[in-house]
Design a protein that fits this description.
It is a single chain. By secondary structure, the protein is an alpha/beta fold. The protein is 43% helix and 14% strand. The protein has an 8-stranded parallel beta sheet. β5, α5 and β6 form a beta-alpha-beta unit. The chain is globular and about 45 Å long.
Length: 253
């Protein structure tokens, strides 16, 4: 068995759950939907969970209540930013989404953090903004872009957190170097956290098949990639509950 735990690069965990509920979920980057949810999450101290600061582009309440100063203050206390981005279902107006995404990217450019980015139906728009902002180590969550867009994203320095539903796409094997790969569950708030390792292990199996490597080797690579992201973003020394997760990644990778 691999000594490293599973690493979920994009999950949604309920910060109201008791600590013991997360004891068997492996290591996870836990994304929030709103600044209100992020403020609650950042009060926690979970051993292998790094809580993110998010403003989901598909959620009107989160978007309309966004405050750039509050976002800056919260993200200064966090190891990760997410879930943020652009959403092509347009449940929230394009103009508002774009304004908020630009403000978030501007803050992250000045105050670097790994960023987990939503781009459903808006892959081209997201790449355009990443080309303007040039932030460190952006992570494209559940990426659905074309092969050409994927190649562009690689050239922009993006990482890819691969979900089981997209793991079989040949564009990853063809265009994404292994050193840019992470694995994600996109776990829902109401899903049992203890189920995360099984979901990650299944996706690891699918991705390892794509790259024709051993699953254990893939997990080692994912942890090494996570450590590299932290180095690129300059977040290795961040205090708080996520510090143990970060240090494990740096020590064991």
């Amino acid at each position: 068995m691999n000594a490293l735990p599973t690493l979920d690069a994009h999950a949604h965990l309920d910060p109201a759950r008791p600590r013991q509920d997360f004891s068997a979920c492996g290591a996870a980057l836990a994304m929030t939907f709103s600044l209100e949810g992020a403020a609650q999450a950042l009060e926690r101290d979970d051993e292998l969970i790094a809580w993110g600061v998010g403003c989901h582009p598909r959620m009107p309440a989160a978007q309309h209540s966004f405050d750039p100063d509050r976002f800056r203050e919260l993200s200064a206390r966090a190891a990760v930013v997410g879930e943020v981005g652009q959403d092509g279902t347009w449940r929230v107006g394009k103009k508002l989404q774009l304004s908020i995404f630009r403000q978030i990217l501007g803050t992250v450019a000045e105050q670097p953090r790994p960023v987990s980015i939503h781009s459903v139906g808006a892959t081209g728009l997201v790449l355009k903004e990443l080309g303007r902002a040039l932030i460190a180590a952006p992570i494209l969550h559940r990426w659905t872009g074309t092969a050409a867009e994927t190649q562009e994203a690689v050239e922009l320095g993006c990482y890819f957190s691969i979900h089981s539903q997209t793991a079989r796409h040949s564009k990853f094997r063809s265009w994404v170097p292994l050193e840019r790969v992470l694995i994600e569950s996109d776990q829902g708030l109401n899903d049992p956290p203890a189920g995360i390792p099984a979901r990650i292990e299944w996706t690891e199996h699918l991705v390892a098949q794509q790259y024709q490597i051993d699953v254990r080797e893939l997990r080692d690579i994912v942890w090494q990639n996570f450590a590299r992201i932290l180095g690129e973003a300059g977040t290795r020394g961040l205090p708080g509950g996520s510090a143990r997760l970060i240090q494990q990644g740096l020590h064991d990778a």
